[in-house]
Amino acid sequence: MKDQTPIYNITPFTLLDYPDKVACIIRLAGCNMRCVYCYNPEIVLGKGTINFEKVLEFLKLRKGILDGVVLSGGECTMHSKIIWLMKEIKAMGFLIKLDTNGSRPLMIEHLVNLKLPDYIALDFKALPDKFEAITGSDLFENFEHTLSFLIASGQKFEVRTTVHSDLIKENDLERMMRYLSLMKYKGTYYIQQFVNGVPTVGNVGHSISTFNMQDIVSELENAAHSRYHIDLVFR
Q1: Which structural domain range is residue 152 located in?
Q2: Which residue has the higher pLDDT, 39 or 157?
Q3: Helices (H), the chain
Q4: 84 in a structural domain
Q5: pLDDT at 17
Q6: Considering the domain boundaries, does residue 2 fall inside one?
Q7: What's the helix, strand, coil split of the chain in %, to 5?
Q8: Is 1's pLDDT higher than 50?
Q9: Is 222 helix (H, G, I), strand (E, B) or coil?
Q10: What is the C-alpha separation between 146 and 40, in angstroms, rounded?
Q11: CB contact at 8 A, 185 and 157
């Protein structure tokens, strides 16, 4: 039977992964991308060891302790029972944050229409000219469909990009911000520094670049002769 043990692991407590909430993280194994900088190769390439029932038993013991549950991966929207799992989690009274690469827009749309995710973190890997080299996939159009839907839907979500100096340059980041503005995204854009010294899917080297983020934002605002509505956060 498919998805008997889809869960790779559970982080029982986090204050960092769900904004302003006390949460746990449930990571589902498997992914449809092979991002070269991904620091979870064992989750992306490996198999799960925990079934959904064990997860629900764990959550029953966390009622009144945790505010929410982060569903992450890998790419958690790939799993056949994700809708069922989210319904069970919501029935327990937990909020749900969904981490996704946006590659399955129809699934995301279905989940949002069912009002299952309370918050979504959408990974913006790169623009089309670099997307395949970074992700090992041709799924940019899927990501774009997801982004367009989320912007139009009113769903609470953030966009985030992981920056490695060999992969994303300052001009790439400028172009990505312009793209988000053209798409009429007005939320928070988190720029995450690649963490050196960890195993990765593509065995990438050391990242050395730092960006002057204020200069990037100022250049974009001057070019548009108006204030950008994107809240840029560098972390």
Answers
A1: 7-234
A2: 157
A3: 41-45, 52-60, 82-91, 105-113, 128-135, 140-153, 170-182, 213-224
A4: yes
A5: 94
A6: no
A7: 35, 20, 45
A8: no
A9: helix
A10: 23
A11: no
The CATH number covering residue 88 comes to 3.20.20.70
pLDDT in tens, 200-231: 898 888 888 666 666 766 766 665 555 666 77
Is position 189 within any domain? yes
- CA atoms 190, 175, 99, 166: torsion sign: negative
Secondary structure (3-state) at 132: helix
Q: What would the two tokens of residue 205 be?
A: 């080297």
Average pLDDT over residues 80-102: 97
Which helix or strand (DSSP H or E) is residue 96 part of?
strand 95-100
Domain membership of residue 1 (yes or no) is no
User: Any idea which residue has 């009113």 for tokens?
Assistant: 154
The model's pTM: 0.92
Domain tally, the chain: 1
